[in-house]
Amino acid sequence: MEFNETKNIFLQIRDWVADQILQGKIVAGEKVPSVRELAVDMEVNRNTVMRSYSLMEEEGIIENKRGIGFFVAADAKRNLLKMQKQTFLKDELPSILHQIEVLKLNSEDLQILIQTIQSNDHANQ
């Protein structure tokens, strides 16, 4: 994994695991890689991975089954979707809307995006 210098590594690891859950690559009840395994795979200190896992445990994304390991929580995907939608609407969408305004984009310019969103809506139904 290529780490971004502008964001803490433990947060990037958390985001990577969250993305794996949202994409269905790791599902509810499934064991996530051990702290040691993930540290080796990502070439980071085990304490960094443990910090990521502790944060995800606090957020209700994973749960620790002592002596067995960390597992994806039953409602992890739902919680992640809710958290990430809130973050997007609060932090990212205002910047996008500002760019639309500055670039004077109109509905015709955005039609491809609108069609993509509508296609995703139909695919998810």
From TrEMBL:
Residues 7-75 form the HTH gntR-type domain. Keywords: DNA-binding, Transcription, Transcription regulation. GO terms for molecular function: DNA binding; DNA-binding transcription factor activity. It comes from the Bacteria. InterPro entries: Tscrpt_reg_HTH_GntR (IPR000524), WH-like_DNA-bd_sf (IPR036388), WH_DNA-bd_sf (IPR036390). PROSITE patterns: HTH_GNTR (PS50949). Coiled coil: none annotated. This is DNA-binding transcriptional regulator YhcF, GntR family. It comes from Algoriphagus locisalis.
